[in-house]
Amino acid sequence: QDRQLQRTGIGLMLESGKVPVEALGQYNFIAYQLANQDNDYGAARTYLQGAIDNNFTTDTITPSSLQIAMAESYFSDEEFQQGFNYLKEAIAGRKAQGQAVEEQWYKRGVTVAYNNELVPQVYELSTLWLSEYSTATNWRDAINIARNLNTFEGPEILDLFRLSRRVDALQDASDYDYYVEAADARRLPREVKDVIEEGIADGVVSTGNLFITEALETANSRIASDRADLPALESDAMAAGAALRTVTAAGSAFLSYGEYGKAETFYQRALEMPGVDTNEALTRLGIAQVGLGKYAAARETFGKVTGNRMPIAMLWIAYANEKDSAAAPAAPATM
Fold it and tell me: pTM of the predicted model, to two decimals?
C-alpha cells in the first residue's frame, strides 16, 4: 500500500523499455493516476500523454475522457492558459476529424474561466460553446457571465439585451425592465413598444407592472412624431457640416427602427469624426451589419471593439457566426 513505491516501480518499468507494446497505454495510465494522487501534475501529464499516444481505452475510458483529463490537470495545477490552449486545440482536432465535441468540454472550460475571472478566455470559450450548442439557455448563461464579470452602463446594457432579444434569452421580467430602462421610451419609442409587447405576448411581462405600463404609454404617444421626424434627422445627419451628435442620433434612431442600411451609413460616418465613442459606434455598426446579413463584415467590425464592450462584441460575433452558418447553402448531394 506504499503509493510512492508503486510510483517508483511502475516508473522504472516504463523506463526499462521492456513493457510490452500492447501494455504501454495501461502502464502509463496507472502511472498517471499515481502521480495525480500525489498532486505531481507535471509528471501526471507526461504519463497521461503516454496513455493517449498509445491509444489506451477501456469500457469506461475513452480518448475524449483522456483529453479532458489533460485539461483538468492543467487547471488543477493553476496553469490556466496552458489548459485552455490544450482544450481549444483538442476541440479543433476533433472537429478537423469530423468528430463530435461533448458539450461538457465547453461547459467545464467556461466554468473554470468564469470562477477565476479569466478574460478574455471565458468569452473565447463561450463563443466556441455557443457555436456548437446554441440554445436559449446557453445564450442566457453566456450573457449573464458577461453581465456578472463587468459593470455595464445603460448604452452597453442596451446592446447586450438587443442580443438577448435576438436569441430568445429574455426570460425574466427583470430582463425587460433593464432593457426598457436602457432603451428609454423617450429616445427609442418603437423599440421599447416592440420589446414590451413581445414580453407581454410571451407571458413574461405583466401589465400590472407600473414601470412597464408607463413606458408603453410614453412609447405609444411618441412613435408617430418620432417617425415623422426621421426624414429631417436623416437630412441633417447627411449634411456636410453635420455634428457628431446628429450623426450618431440618426444611427441610433434608424437602428431602433430596423433600418439597418441607413444605420450602417451613419455609424460608418460617425467613426470618421473626432470625439466619437469608437467602441459604441463599432458595436452598433456591427449590429446593423448583422441585420443586413453582412456577417463577415460584422465579425470584422466587432473584432475591433476593445475595452468594456469587448465581451459584448465577442458574443455578437458568436451570433453572427450562427446566422452565417444557417445562411450558408447546403453542400450538393454526391452520387
Answer: 0.88
CA distance 227 to 256: 11
Residues 6+ apart with CB under 8 A from 184: 154, 192
Instruction: Find the Cα–Cα–Cα–Cα dihedral 135, 299, 93, 81, rounded to 10°.
Output: -90
Length of the chain: 335
Cβ–Cβ < 8 Å for 192, 161: no
Please give the C-alpha separations between residue 211 and each of 165, 208, 277, in angstroms, as whole numbers: 19, 9, 30
pLDDT tens, residue by residue, 134-180: 999 999 999 999 999 999 999 999 999 999 999 999 989 999 999 99
The Cα 268–Cα 148 span in angstroms is 31
3-state secondary structure of 29: helix
- Give the cell for residue 216: 408603453
Residue 48: Cβ within 10 Å count: 25
Which triple of cell numbers denotes residue 322?
Answer: 450562427
Q: For 225-241, what is each residue's pLDDT tens digit?
A: 999 999 999 999 999 99
